[in-house]
Amino acid sequence: MRQLEDRKIVVASHNKGKLAEFADLIAPFGFEAKSAADYGLPEPEETGMTFEENAYIKALAAASATGLPALSDDSGLMVDALDGAPGVYTADWATLEDGTRDFAMAMRVTEEKMAEKGALANDRRTGRFVSVICLAWPDGHAEYFRGEIDGHLVWPPRGEKGFGYDPMFQPEGFDVTFGEMNADEKHGWKPGDATALSHRARAFQKFARAMLGSA
Ligand code: IMP
After folding, report:
1. Which residue ranges form the domains of the chain, and what is each CATH number?
2. Is 90 in the pocket of ligand 1 (CB under 6 A)?
3. In 3D, which of 88, 70, 90, 75 has the Cα closest to residue 12?
4. In angstroms, what is the span from residue 50 Cα to ligand 1's centroid?
5. 8 A C-beta contact, residue 215 and residue 191
6. Among the options 24, 73, 74, 166, which is catalytic?
7. Burial class of residue 182 in the structure, from the number of CB atoms within 10 Å of its CB (0-12 exposed, 13-18 middle, 19+ buried)
């Protein structure tokens, strides 16, 4: 596995929720981590069919443009009753014609589709969040780290914290949604801890162990 030579990377995202989470997760490692937005980079089109493909598109675009290793995350919600949808299209379900995003609407659409499938009882409302982190270098080399968290889709959504579909997702073993957790509770991890909670923190934990010498 190729190692990072300098503690300087670009976080290849324009998503404020993800950027805030990466800033938290990376802070203990003393990195200089500017975002793609800080560099004024455009958002590449996500034309891949998998989380890995889309994560690579984003990381490579930022690495090529800046000459620095770039860390991206492609993530999404997979609902069992919807055969894994919205999956790689999770952000698209929230995107309006003018390009802005409306997650209250996206959660409502998810609920309507689950109701159409008759997925109203708790045992039919299972799903998971998936995050694939990609670290790509300007020469095209890439490493991947995947994290997943199982849970239930609740209705109505609960909580004002977090971002995206957080208010609709209750992780396994908890009676609160990600939208009701503060950032530390949702990550469920700091360097040295054995386990992480959120999909992104689980993927980041693998990245930190492989690339940052974390315990
Ligand atoms: P993408 O990775 O840019 O394609 O977007 C993934 C989408 O999945 C985001 O826009 C969010 O709506 C959703 N998502 C990913 N991770 C989370 C999370 O931790 N909480 C809530 N929604 C998430």
Report:
1. 8-211 (3.90.950.10)
2. yes
3. 70
4. 14
5. yes
6. 74
7. exposed
From 35, 45, 77, mutation site for ligand 1 pocket: most ligand atoms within 8 A of C-beta: 77
Give pLDDT tens digits for 110-147.
Answer: 999 999 999 999 999 999 999 999 999 999 999 999 99
Beta strand 32-35 pairing with 70-79: unpaired
| pTM, rounded to two decimals | 0.97
- Taking the C-alpha atoms of residue 41 and residue 111, their distance in angstroms, rounded to an integer, is 35
Residue length of the chain: 215
- Contact predicate 159/178, CB 8 Å: yes
Cis? peptide before 157, omega within 30° of 0: no
